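Q: I have 266 residues here and want to know how they pack in 3D. Can you give me a structure?
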Amino acid sequence: MATKLSIAKKVFMQEKDLILNSSSFHNFFSENEDWLKPYAAFCFLRDFFETSDHSQWGCFSNYSKDKLEKLVSKDALHYDTICFHYYIQFHLHLQLSEAAEYARAKGVVLKGDLPIGVDRNSVDTWVYPTLFRMNTSTGAPPDYFAKNGQNWGFPTYNWEEMSKDNYGWWRARLTQMGKYFTAYRIDHILGFFRIWELPDHAMTGLIGKFRPSIPLSQEELEREGIWDFDRLTRPYVRKEFLQENFGDSWILIAANFFKEYLDRYE
C-alpha cells in the first residue's frame, strides 16, 4: 500500500492541474463535497497526528464546519495534500463507475457489501459523534460457535438522534452505494432491528444486551405458563458445572461466591 500511495502521489503532482481543473472533476466535487471535504481533512489530520484516533487530535478533536473550511482552504500550506485525497477518491469513482457500467451492459448485476457498523476512529464518528453511542461496542452473544460471544469493536447507533432528520446519514450512505451497485448485502441487516451492545471496555461478547429490547413482565410469562422465578431470575449454576471447572476447589468457590445457594450444592 505504501508503494502504491507513493506512486499515486508522483502521478498526482504531474497531472494535478489538468485533473483538478477538468469539468469531470468539478462535477464530481460538487456532487460529493458534503462527504469529500471532511474525508480529505480527516485523512490529512490522521497522517499529521499519526493516528486515526481523533480524540488525540487536540483542538481538532471536536469537528466543526469552521475548522473544516480552514483545513481545506486553498490558502492552506497543505492544500496539495487535501487535493491528493480528492484526486484518489475521484479516480476510485471513475474506475468503479466504468466497471459498473460495463457489468450492466453485459447483463451482470453488481452487489455491494455494506457493513452495518463503522470504525470508532472514522471520519463518520468524527463528523457525526452524536449519531453513535461512543461508550459502547457491537458484537454477538455467546453461541455454539463462539462461547465467549463476539466483540466487533465498532460503536452502536444512536437511533433516536438519527431519526431527527429522517435517518439522513443512512439515506446518504445508501444513495452513494446506489451509484455503483444494483443490490446491497448488508452485514448484518438484523442490526437495523436490534443489536448486541457491549460496554466499550469489554474484551469479549459476554457482558452485553440486546438493544433495543422489549422486556417481558412476570405477568406475561405467567400467562404463558413459563414463569419459574428461581430459574429465570437467580444464578443457575449446577454443582456438576462447578466440579467440572474447578475440580476439588468447587466447594471453596461455592462458599465464597454462591453463599446464598450453598445449600443447593450440599
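Q: Anything worth noting?
A: The CA atoms of residues 19 and 25 lie 7 Å apart. The beta strands are 111-115, 132-133, 136-140, 150-151, 156-157, 183-187, 195-199, 209-211.
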